[in-house]
Automatic annotation (TrEMBL):
Keywords associated with the record: Cell membrane, Membrane, Transmembrane, Transmembrane helix
Subcellular location: Cell membrane
Keyword Kinase included in the entry's annotation: no
Domain spans labelled ABC3 transporter permease C-terminal: 267-391
Name of this protein: ABC transporter permease
Gene Ontology terms: cellular component: plasma membrane protein complex
UniProt family annotation: Belongs to the ABC-4 integral membrane protein family. LolC/E subfamily.
Length: 399
């Protein structure tokens, strides 16, 4: 009996009603609204995740997973590095010194940061530097510069590049900034304009000579496959004598802004599904109002109010659920097209890639589906509840 009533009402109210065509139009709009809304939300989440991971990857490479810095009373030297290597044999270490410099050409100046590193160690932890030095080798006063700097100044391999340092040399009765000419040996390309324009690398011993530095370092860059856990262990091992920073802490504001943007986008796009679900409410309420006499007659013939409620609730879930299934299929088709064809091309110097990054995480997918399902269920419940509140005697007497 229950299945018979449910099936009967579903097929009856889904059929096109010539007398009330607006009810079917409202159902169709509800179906399309849920479908398009869910599709847009899934595609937007995939694009946001893709950009998040792409930026994270770029920052991860050039900022290094973990960085150790000395405090004013501590010292970063080879003894400390050897202790860390023994304590953490799975990690890779690259000590460095750095200084802010000015790049000078014939007609222009450009600020930047010059790193002095041991390139054998640096290539172990920095994939960008490793790719740039597959053939070439940096030694003495050779320099590795970014591709953006090469383009801006029209430089090429073998050119001399004048670097102005902040430390001063005594010259007569005045102090003048120290200037050194480096030989351009190679160029790197990280995909992010800031690093390709501002970062430069040279041999650590060569930079020590220019800066009159002893056998110490400004810090240690560390590569780790599990930076969150290893950072805790390093902090525990070093105590308060050194500052240990993870790459996510160095760019915390940036990634917090991305996370906030993603949450806001999720809420705003979920409103599309909410608005579409209002059509489910309106169409079911119109059916209830126009079929009051039929509902009252079914109740008088022995149908329970629970059966009537389930029938209208199932009708709403059928409209919304079919829209959700269609939206999911449509979203995956769009993601497949965007992922396999160059429909959208991005400027590489801004985004670090020319291809639209896409990554729909399982968590986002299920959160989106659950959110849409809850909205559709709530939209179906209210009209179903109203259908059970029909007064049988008054309705049959008056209608």
């Amino acid at each position: 009996m229950k299945k018979g009533i449910l099936r009967y009402l579903l097929f009856k109210y889904l059929r096109f009603d010539k007398e009330q065509p607006f009810i079917n139009l409202s159902m169709l709009l509800a179906f399309l609204g849920v479908s398009v809304g869910l599709c847009v939300l899934l595609v937007a989440m995939a694009i946001m995740n893709g950009f998040d991971k792409e930026f994270e990857k770029r920052f991860f490479v050039m900022n290094y997973p973990i960085t150790i810095l000395p405090k004013f009373y501590s010292l970063v030297d080879d003894d400390l590095i050897n202790k860390l290597k023994k304590e953490f044999p799975k990690l890779k270490f690259s000590p460095y010194i750095s200084t802010q410099v000015i790049v000078k050409t014939d007609n222009s100046f450009e600020g930047g940061v010059l790193f002095g590193v041991n390139f054998n160690d640096e290539k172990e932890i920095n994939e960008v530097v490793k790719k740039a030095l597959v053939i070439d080798e940096i030694k003495n006063f050779d320099i590795l510069i970014g591709s953006a700097l090469v383009r801006e100044f029209g430089l090429k391999r073998g050119d001399k590049l004048a670097i102005i340092f902040s430390n001063l040399d005594a010259s007569g009765f005045s102090l003048t900034p120290k200037t050194k000419r480096f030989d351009i040996k190679a160029q790197f390309h990280s995909g992010l304009l800031f690093y390709d324009k501002a970062y430069m690398y040279t041999d650590v011993n060569a930079l020590r000579k220019i800066l009159n530095r002893k056998q110490d370092y400004d810090g240690i860059h560390i590569y780790s496959t599990n930076a969150f856990e290893d950072l805790k262990k390093i902090k525990q091992y070093l105590g308060d004598d050194y500052i240990s920073i993870g790459w996510w802490e160095q760019n915390q504001n940036f990634f917090s802004a991305l996370a906030l943007e993603k949450r806001v986008l999720f809420i705003v796009l979920m409103l599309i599904i909410l608005v579409a679900s209002l059509n489910i409410v309106s169409s079911l309420l119109m059916i209830v109002m126009n079929r009051r006499s039929e509902i009252a007659l079914l109740l008088a013939l022995g149908a329970s109010r629970v059966e009537i409620k389930k029938s209208f609730f199932s009708l709403g879930m059928l409209i919304g659920g079919s829209g959700m299934i269609c939206g999911i299929v449509l979203a995956f088709i769009i993601l497949w097209l965007l992922g396999n064809f160059d429909i959208i091309s991005l400027p590489a110097d801004v985004y670090g890639t020319t291809k639209l990054p896409l990554d729909l995480s399982i968590i986002d997918f299920f959160l989106t589906i659950c959110g849409a399902l809850i909205i559709v269920a709530l939209s179906s419940y209210y009209p179903a509840k109203k259908a059970t509140e029909v007064n049988v005697l008054d309705t049959l007497r008056n209608e």
